[in-house]
Trace amine-associated receptor 1
Amino acid sequence: MMLVCHSVMNISCVESSRSHDVRVSLYSLMVIIILTTLVGNLIVIISISHFKQLHTPTNWLIHSMALVDFLLGCLVMPYSMVRSVEHCWYFGEIFCKIHTSTDIMLSSASIFHLSFISIDRYYAVCDPLRYKARMNIWVTFVMIFISWSVPALLAFGMIFMELNIKGAEEMYCKHIYCKGGCAVFFSKITGVLAFMISFYIPGSIMLCVYCRIYFIAKGQARSIKGTSQKLQTGLEERNGISQSKERKAATTLGIVLGVFLICWCPFFVCTIMDPFLNYTIPLALNEALIWFGYLNSTFNPMVYAFFYPWFRRALKIILFGKIFQKDSSRCKVFLDSNP
């Protein structure tokens, strides 16, 4: 017997036919992803908020991104989990729109933050003398404001004004829409628009910035290597730490770019292709790719925070309860001048 999500069978979505064991396995996996996302990003938020030494423009960007990823794990992933496993939506049509808008907003905001952090690192590595003048707290505030406001306007405006189905109303009503479901639907125009704003433009910025940092660091290393031994010794003493930071920044950005592309590229490619394929991509595949994209928010604190010694020191202070001691906010969690 076919199970349905709504009492009116002829307009109801079809419930998942997965076995009990498969559902338990999927729920367990998704709960692990949600908890890892929440814990990892919460530790980043607490660390940067609590320790005064971490109150820098770069870290406030990371703090804001961690907040976005934490909210994604808290407000979006649990409901997406039920939808993905059961293929039914039990929370009403209004909340479906709120959930879809929040999902698009927070996922896009996380990607925007990644793009702005790469720009910040570009100036820190490639123009360190003017970095503090260019990347002050007000510039950081503008970056954070854009990272939250543009995705919010795009997501809530598109979903609540139903612009996402504009131009494909007949297809949506006859072949996609069903009672008891909450599918994320894009027409050809909005699919391309979402692809460009949420993925292609931020991803291109990250790629260009990474390539620029890589070639500058490589050029500086070649320049030092080609200098005479006497001059080279002096340069090594003055530039050793700087060169090490350049390599570290290039490596970290490379990993960030790789994780970003691996997690989000499949979903956005399917998003832009599905309308041109008459929406033939299976629902199960689309749900799996959405969760693959969510993993970017799970990995963000690992890539951006666990790579830095200051985070490991802050984590140790938090885990051992030293954070509750008097003046713990003034503890030194990094040794050099740039966290």
Notes: The longest helix spans residues 229-273. The domain at 25-330 is CATH 1.20.1070.10 (Rhopdopsin 7-helix transmembrane proteins). Residues 310 and 334 are 5 Å apart (CA to CA). The mean pLDDT is 85.
